[in-house]
Amino acid sequence: MKRFLLVTLAILLVLSLSVFGKVKIVYWQYYFETKVKAIDELIKEFQKLYPDIEVEHVTFPYEAFNEKVAASVPAGTGPDVVNLYYGWIPKYVTSGYLQPLPENEFSDEYFQKNFFPFVAKGVEFMGKRYAIPIAVRSLALFWNKDLFKEAKLDPEKPPRTLQELVEVAKKLTKYDKQGNIVQAGLATQPSGQGHHWIREVLVRQFGGSPYNDDYTKVTYHEVPEALKFYTDLITVHKVGYPGFMNDDITAFTSQSAAMNIDGSFRIAALKRAGINFGVAELPEHNGIKSNFASFWANGITSTCTGEKLDAAIKFVKFLASEMVMEMWLEKVGELPANPAVAQKYYNDPIYGPFLRGLEYAHATFFVDETAQRKVMMDAVDKVWLKGVSPEQAFREAAQEEQEILDKFWMSVGK
Length: 414
Hints:
Blueprint: H1 2-20, E1 23-30, H2 33-49, E2 53-60, H3 62-72, E3 81-85, H4 89-94, H5 108-114, H6 117-122, E4 124-125, E5 128-129, E6 131-133, E7 135-136, E8 139-144, H7 145-150, H8 162-172, E9 174-175, E10 181-183, H9 190-205, H10 225-235, H11 248-253, E11 259-263, H12 267-273, E12 277-280, E13 291-292, E14 296-300, H13 306-319, H14 322-331, E15 335-336, H15 339-342, H16 352-358, E16 361-362, H17 369-386, H18 390-411
Parallel strand pairs: 1-2, 1-3, 13-16
Antiparallel strand pairs: 3-14, 4-5, 6-14, 7-15, 8-11, 8-12, 9-10
Helix pairs in contact: 2-14, 9-10, 9-17, 10-17, 17-18
């Protein structure tokens, strides 16, 4: 009997060590179906490599995500690793949610070897880096080839210039007897990627720059032609309007919009929807090309320490590995953040236009991405809904955004 008890105790001891010997970390991201499924698969692969680490995957609706982080991290009940939009980094840092990446693990050489150059700058705040991405994004023009055929347009020839974009969009727009749009030639949704297209693309193509070099001053109001081009699509050419079919994504996937400017993250969903679509680089203007680069990145929260910190470092490095980037491109559609991995897809008809766009893309430095996005959305609404001139709307937007910048930089002592 004694021997039986000793054997039982020994087995229980081994089992308890195997359970309690595991380090558990919690990973948070907002709910986006393809990303959630991909991370679930990747966690299984990671745990095969590191059987002593358990990763719990938690998701929240996008609209509630920042609120959840704000409520949980300071209380010590939130994630160890958090997926965040790069434009949130300044706010997350000043709010105390993130810790800097350890420089011995994430050196300058590590960034130079593994990422496009704009990534290191995009994750840096006040001289320290706070996150690393799996993938990066740029914008491109999506067009529905079947709707092009219906309009007797060449389905293999998308518009290459802004002037051609307007002309083609007009031919693709359909109206009912009352003059209401029933098929948009071009989706216009500033709350989606429209505000980026205005700020980082159209402003530069019309000869300006959205901000000064250190992002302390707003300068986009100096080229009101950029906002006018965008709002003319709605008010003058009448090829689309914000909220048509609820949003640009719904309009394009339901084949009620013939063209849309969107990010590479949309590819997987469009393929699943079975739409006969093409992808082209953003239309240029007077020979000027521009694009907007962005990314979601994985950072380590300020409350993650000790064994959890070691495990978190391993996890974020795994998520930034070349193998994961290859899988992420296939499953999610976002572009590899590593130029060496991305190079393989430059001639791909779907991924190639996005990757080529990265060569001349700009990643906006946001101090408060949500507030800055709203400023641009409001500018469009003022022109479209209130009849304000694009010049005045852009001036007012610049004043509002300058106040946001001034308040932020004053708070950090710059």
